[in-house]
Design brief:
homodimer, alpha+beta, Glutathione S-transferase Yfyf (Class Pi), Chain A, domain 2, 4-stranded mixed sheet, 7 helices, globular
Chain lengths: 205, 205
């Protein structure tokens, strides 16, 4: 297997963090989508032109970062970051989605639509982006309440929900969305950030 | 079990369609989130104030429509709409995400930000909404290519990817995003629309 990534893509970092948590040795291949040649070759790997993509040993490809994580979790041993029992799997899936749809994606969108360095890459709508900022900030009290009762977003164990939530928080902070007012959230971000899997995870953000 | 829904919520329709496909008899409870009283009571069910939510027999709740679908598929018999083998599950998950993130959600967002009747409910950014329209339309050639080679989005069998994709197409069409130029997409929408599970699925859209 090989994983096609770009150091600028927060979605790729989710897979990288999962690989490290599970101590899976999958080589990373950096793709430069600003190069016309690499872009053309990549179209056969993922017609949506997004990283990451996972090349399987038989030569087929899986894309969509969460699907790649799910696949890697299924073909490898414990810890299972999508949970074991149905109750665990359901809680983890629910919190992963909340973290993704209401924090991770809004934080990325906010950055795309407001950061001066991304003006050339995106048609920016900074006024609309404020609604993404509010959305991300709106999830914090909910996450805070959850983390007051459980050590991790998905419950008792570290899971894919923490990976998505943690990277979402880091992206939000990088783009200037304040997240640190809640003590449980602050403690959780710091605690996840101390894991081996989080070390030097962010080359650019 | 009981499912809290709102007839205006496309996310709730995904669960309703899955229930029908699997012939599961789960009572639906309509929630009117414009009523102050119902809204207050609903906060304990889902702090994010979104429908649908599934009440389990032991009195706990699951929210996030896809997580509810996943749970219901796991506790019930065949057909398994998230797939059986790992290869099937991976293809279905990948296409479900593409359909959700690049068609279903953009179509809903486009409508929220452009429909005159929703002006009071949303701070509308119609210029930004055009990017959502382009995004939804951008997935069509990819879906079209997929459906030229496979009868269903996830592969050989009807799956949750078709549910998300079909409802996404219906929402897009309702809000005036043209989807019908591709023959395979047109045929697939029509074919899915003829299933028992799709009958009178759309009270409002």
């Amino acid at each position: 297997m090989r994983l096609f990534v770009s150091p600028m893509a927060p979605n790729a970092l989710r897979v990288v963090m999962l690989l490290r948590e599970k101590r899976l040795d999958v080589p990373l291949v950096n793709i430069d989508l600003s190069s016309k040649e690499e872009k053309e070759a990549y179209r056969a790997i993922n017609p949506l032109m997004q990283v990451p993509a996972l090349e399987l040993d038989e030569g087929s490809y899986v894309s969509e970062s969460l699907t790649i994580c799910q696949y890697l979790d299924a073909v490898s041993g414990a810890p299972h970051l999508f949970g074991e029992s149905l109750a665990e799997r359901t809680q983890i899936a629910m919190w992963e989605r909340r973290a993704e749809l209401m924090l991770f994606i809004p934080a990325v969108e906010y950055g795309h639509h407001t950061h001066p360095a991304l003006r050339a890459a995106f048609h920016q709508f900074p006024d609309w982006a404020q609604t993404m900022r509010s959305k991300a900030m709106g999830l914090l009290p909910i996450i805070s309440e959850r983390l007051s009762a459980h050590p991790y977003l998905g419950g008792n164990d570290f899971s894919i929900a923490d990976i998505t939530g943690y990277i979402g928080c880091r992206v939000a902070t990088f783009f200037g969305i304040p997240l640190s007012e809640s003590a449980p959230v602050k403690e959780w971000v710091q605690r996840i950030g101390q894991r081996d899997s989080a070390r030097n995870l962010f080359p650019t953000i």
